[in-house]
Amino acid sequence: MPLDQDRERGRLREVVLFFTRLGFISFGGPAAHIAMMHDEVVTRRGWLTEQGFLDFVGVSNMIPGPTSTELAMHLGRRRAGWMGLVLAGVSFIVPAMVIVLGLAWAYVEYGATPEGEALLYGIAPVVIGIIALALWKLGRAAVKDIPLAVLGVAILALYLAGVNEIALLFGSGVLVMLARRTVHVGGWRASLLPWVPPGTLIAAAAQDAAATYLRLFLTFLKIGAVLFGSGYVLLAFLRADLVERLGWLTEQQLLDAVAVGQVTPGPLFTTATFIGYLVLGVPGALLATLAIFLPSFVAVAITSPFVPKLRRSRWLAAALDGVNVAAVALMAGVTWQLAIRAIVDVPTAALAVLAGALLVFWRPNVAWLVLGGGVAGLAIEALR
To answer: In whole angstroms, what is the distance from residue 358 CA to residue 366 CA?
Structure first.
């Protein structure tokens, strides 16, 4: 028993240290976060296989909330049980929250968002290199046959044409499931992944409440409970609730809040921290952060036990294969869009290629690559 307890504590410590470090250096949005997690937990640490990792990515895409944060929770539970789920999520969120809270204080005190163009100039192409290598590895695991390859290309084209990513994810899963039914007809036990639409939360958030803190909490709880898709969809939800309905922010404040969420590491949903601080100071920042992430903890706790069972059901395994291919295709689409903005000249192109080459031939820790990219960006800008 003492040996088991020591092993459990060791795994929990490993989860906390890994996701805390990742929370401080994971620039670049969900695609970059997923790439960094893949590099560590599959390639370096061997916590699970490529297929197991892909299955968690697929399920994380199918539930509301920030995909990369939910993936961290799934991985934490896989490594260290239920406490690992909680600690992985908290460890990944808190570093970003602290950084955003500091920037919010500076924004309020000095009236402008701190700039970091030179730093991000070097970091962004390095992140593209990291994502590209992860895409290659995940793609080889997800694309198991020619029909899935064709489907992946079609999903990528539809995404770049502007089709909703949620429709593509679920449509791909249903299509593969139905297509394989014509080949394999067998018993199907559907373990439902229950998610009750939080209509009561929506109604409660829309009503006037006596306590402003309660209104803030319910507003962000509703957003966290119903928001599917990439973190950039968050902008539409925030504008509708906080600018138009409640009038807590101006358009410019909202854009500044989203900008801070983009230039800081960790999940984009920590934009809620910034907004909460603008509205109600430190208590508002903590409440908003708790509220927007709380539904994700619940959703992952509900779905995580079912992930291994999905592979044992022909129907659900087929659906998951479709979702996985779509997830990789969407990740490729996002990477292309980010690369257009990140690789703007010869130095940034060189940094992206160098980062990818180093990962292939030398395999340095991605944290050092990200930090090195930032230093390179500062150096290049200083020489101009």
So the answer is: 10
Nearest CA to 122 out of 359, 355, 305, 364 is that of 355
Closest Cα partner for 98 from 274, 292, 232? 274
Is 188 strand, coil or helix? coil
Would the pTM count as exceeding 0.85?
Answer: no
- Nearest Cα residue to 54 out of 249, 313, 329: 329
What pLDDT digit, counting tens, does each position of 56-98 carry?
988 887 777 888 899 999 999 999 999 999 999 999 999 999 9
- At residue 202, what is the residue type? I
Please write the tens of the pLDDT for every residue from 158-189. Answer: 988 988 777 887 888 899 988 887 655 443 33
Residue 79: CA count within 13 A, CB half-sphere: 32
Backbone φ and ψ of 193, nearest 5°: -105, 90
Amino acid at 117: E
Exposed (0-12), middle (13-18) or buried (19+): which is 221, by Cβ within 10 Å?
A: buried
